[in-house]
Design a protein that fits this description.
The chain has 265 residues and is of the alpha+beta class. The chain contains seven helices and 14 strands. The protein binds D-MYO-inositol-1-phosphate and calcium ion (2 copies).
Amino acid sequence: MSIDLQTLCQEVCLLSKDVGAFIRSERDEFSSEKIEVKGKNDFVSYVDKTSEKRIIDKLSVLLPEAGFIAEEGTSTKKGEIYNWIIDPLDGTTNFIHGIPCFAISIALMRKDELVLGVIYEINFDECFYAWEGSKSFLNGKEIYVSETSKVADSLLATGFPYYDYSRIDEYMELFKHFMKNSRGLRRLGSAATDLAYVACGRFDGFYEYCLQPWDVAAGAFIVQQAGGKVTDFKGEGNYLFNREIVAGNSAFFIEFSDIVKKHFK
Ligand code: IPD
Ligand code: CA
Ligand code: CA
């Protein structure tokens, strides 16, 4: 059966906004007793879990044959051809501290290929999306990666290691390098939003290690449909399951990703 990805993408945007409204309304009622600890510095609450259930219930109606790779494990159904990759709340630490940067991230894979991505940043009501063959969009307007051609002129984003410190020395050396040789670095606390901001040119590049497929799937797809590049630290294509990602505009990507590669040998 062939699927109309554009229509599906529109439905996923509506779903994200609907679940986003739930997350926004829960934010005002939220207090620290509601937090559960999954691991070191890894938190969750009924908000993440309820959002994921709502997303999966609706996606199961929209595309019944598809399976799921979802952060909170609501469904582990495997789809033969199609699988959704879902982070129901990316930026949970921001959410629980009341810092306004958190998003819903939903991607669709056909076999091994990403074919649809939606990121809804809840606080600014910004929906970033793309489907196979399309441009990337932000709230209905086409978006493009930046044209900055040198690392020296770039604004970068990253995520700090917070539970796996096995590569922290390389990470800190790289951080120092970019501190001295770029316009600056930002740490938003939501990898999906970092990638969405690369796609629309607010950031020139982003890198982080220890990320999961649900943190990066939709964002990596939207960056590429917006004209950018995405690789793992080796410069290869395994950014989805290899827990390392470099993303950026095409004009400075060789210089940028070479610097990352050299530091993470
Ligand atoms: C986290 C955010 C954060 C990144 C972490 C992720 P979560 O996702 O994307 O920016 O640095 O590695 O785990 O736990 O808030 O969904
Ligand atoms: Ca996440
Ligand atoms: Ca999450």
